Amino acid sequence: MLNFLSPDKQPSPVGKKDEMHPEDIRNMFIFFVLAALVYFSYDAFVLDPQREAIKAQNEINQEIKLAVESNNGGSAEAEAVARPRAEILSEARRVEFATNEIRGSIDLSAGGRLDDLSLNRYFKTLADKENVTVLNPKGGDLARGVEYGWLSTSGVRVPGKNAQWRISGNGDLRAGGEVTLVWDNGAGVTFERVIALDEHFMFTITQRVINNSEQSVTVYPYGLISQKGIPSDYAATWISHEGPIGFIGDELYNEDYDDLRDEKKETFNADKGWIGITDKYWLTALIPPQGEDVKYAFNYAGATQDKDNEGLYQADYLGQAVTVAPGAAQDVQSHLFVGAKEVILLKEYQDTLGIPQFDLAVDFGWFWFMTIPFFYALHYLNLAVGNMGIAIIILTIMIRGAVFPLTNTSYRSFAKMKKIAPIVQVLREKYGHDKQKMQEELIEMYQREGVNPMSGCLPIIVQIPIFFALYKSFFVTIELRHEPFFGWIQDLSAPDPTSIFNLFGIIPWDPPSILMIGAWPCAMLLIMIVQKKLNPPPQDPLQRDMANYMPFLFAFIMSGFAAGLVVYWTFSALIGVLQQMIIMRSLGVPIHLFGETSEEEEEAAEEAADQFVAEHEGKDAVISDEDEAPKEISPPKPKKKKKKK
User: Fold this and answer.
1) pTM to 2 decimals?
2) Which of the ends of the chain has fewer CB neighbours closer than 10 A, N or C?
3) How many domains does the chain divide into?
4) What per-residue confidence (pLDDT) applies to 246?
């Protein structure tokens, strides 16, 4: 940290050798910013193509029989190749359900397995009106289903994975309704499963044992979610977790698919929690009875190097023992969530049903203390104005207002640095041969002018965590998925679909993905160039070259980010430019956006530098043109011709 002291209290030149020069500190910040840019560039343009190749390999080609090493003894049915979903669904005896949010069916001939569920309000793509499917039957692509049942250690016959269930009564499994499934073991014990569904994505599962035999019955309730292979659109990334997930006891467990393949099985015991499998936007989660001793487990059956994507992944729980006396009955109630990870809804279930940390199914990441407030602000602003893009602009203004004290100080320092930049250049030319002397003169001038060179780094320091938090919020929350702005932006969570290389659609040519630099990134580029013009030019040649290319590099990288993030950055930079211009006008700093410094301003800068040196060291210290000057590091700049009036 620089210590600005009065001339009589300045430390000795020997002590100054250990101080870090302002340019060195600035270089350090530039290094961190460049490192972040390089990382995102590598992630967007190197890792993304690799992920696309992995996705292509993840398509399911065939089904194989796999025994699951878990408490239920279930297994995947053998199928030669993946068959059409509708064909598989038509072959089984099913009970259907439908609400405004979801629709699907339960397979009564396969243990009452819930393996058919689609979302009514969510589609796979903007152009394609095919609904998102979260659960799929065995034998098709990405078979994922939910099973409930009982285990017995005393020889009591319990319903298995192929049990034939029947419907009791005239149940109607719609929002607010319920249906009862019944299975009789033929020895006096009847098992019932009452399934109820609310208006969103939550099932209430009540498992009942009715003992009409002459002996007590002890059984253990279980629930499981099994998945054949990995989704074709799965991309392993640090931004968002996909795969087995659970909040068990007091800890969140995010199990990657590859980690589970290595571990094969992980078990936990706790009296509260939930467990499931999550996609980027969709969640399937089991919520067992809370306050009871429950055994949770993640399981995998298959090859460790699952190159053909044929492994079976499972999340399950085993409840505590239930003993039913002769002539008695006993219930065990649990819940099942299958649907979209809407943050507000997850939080509501967390509060009303007592599900611990259920909103952590959305991966808000390390910057959750910023990401969550940003999400709620965007959500409620969108409800108020009816357009998520306008909500992003309003949030941008709010953020800029919140950091105004810091940015105001920084921009004032920038303006002062801009004002004295010609003097700094003259001093560097005079003392370029003596670094120690040049540093002393610069520090003295900064102190006299009230300038802190490091204050200009504050906007960068403040913007970095805000940028990461917004990027995380745009990437992981479904509330921004397929949300339109105006014109060509129909999905703020996806990159700008236009490209300058086909004149934004005028030329009938589809550029490769690396050349998809859209209109919004170009607008951001222009504003960043103006912003660079307003900043004081770096004195270090390397910094100066980097500053010239930085807007183009940043626009190229940002073109692969969500359009909503580019909208935010564009308006944030625009607000910064306006604020910076107002401050420069108030301080009398000339603004040169499209021209060079005039000859009169250069002469005034030289005179100011000479005057500063003369005041500091005396008249004899001024190096005149007639003096024998030392060799300069950089060649002198040619003088400009005076313009004729």
Assistant:
1) 0.77
2) C
3) 2
4) 96
What DSSP string describes 552-594?
HHHHHHHTTS-HHHHHHHHHHHHHHHHHHHHHHHHTT----SS
Reply yes or no on whether the pLDDT at 101 is more than 90.
yes
Q: How far apart are CA 403 and CA 291, in angstroms?
A: 45
| Same domain flag for 394 and 298 | no
For 443, residues 6+ apart whose C-beta sits below 8 A from its C-beta are 2, 4
Average pLDDT, the chain: 80
Residues 92 and 111: their CA atoms lie apart, in Å, by 11
74 pLDDT higher than 90: no
Is 592 a domain residue? yes
Q: What is the DSSP letter of 504?
A: T
Residues 64-91, mean pLDDT to the nearest whole number? 56
Same-domain status, 534 and 459: yes
Could you tell me if residue 374 is inside a domain? Answer: no
Q: For residues 281 and 396, state if they share a domain.
A: no
Bigger pLDDT: 48 vs 304? 304
The per-residue pLDDT for 47 is 59
User: What is the DSSP secondary-structure string of 238-267?
Assistant: SSS--EEEEEETTEEEE--HHHHHHH-EEE
Which of 483, 420, 485, 414 is closest to 452 using CA atoms? 414
Least confident range of 101-115, 231-245, 284-298: 231-245
In this model, does residue 57 exceed pLDDT 50?
no
| Residues 345, 394 share a domain | no
389 & 357 share domain: no
Q: Which residue range is the domain that position 331 belongs to?
A: 66-363
Q: Of 221-230, 266-275, 527-536, give the lowest mean pLDDT range.
A: 527-536
Question: Where do we find the tokens 């492994």?
Answer: 311
Cα→Cα distances 561→470, 477, 558, Å: 11, 15, 5
pLDDT band at 282 (very low <50, low <70, confident <90, very high): very high
Three-state SS string across 285-343, please? Answer: EEECCCCCCEEEEEEEECCCCCCCCCCEEEEEEECCCEEECCCCEEEEEEEEEEEECCH
Pick from 312, 154, 304: nearest CA to 224: 312
* Same-domain pairing of 112 and 175: yes
3-class state of residue 283 by DSSP: strand
Same domain, 508 and 442: yes
Taking only Cα atoms into account, the Rg of the chain, rounded to an integer number of angstroms, comes to: 33
* Residues 453 and 546 placed together within one structural domain of the fold: yes
pLDDT at 45: 61
126 pLDDT above the threshold of 80: yes
The answer to whether 194 touches 171, Cβ cutoff 8 Å, is: no
Determine, yes or no, domain membership for 213.
yes
- The two structure tokens encoding residue 608: 């100011």
pLDDT for the residue numbered 65: 30
Report which residue type is found at 66: L
Question: How far, in Å, CA of 433 to CA of 176, rounded?
Answer: 84
**Residue 609 within a domain:** no
Closest Cα to residue 277, out of 305, 304, 307, 257? 257
Residue 254 CA to residue 140 CA, distance in Å, equals 27
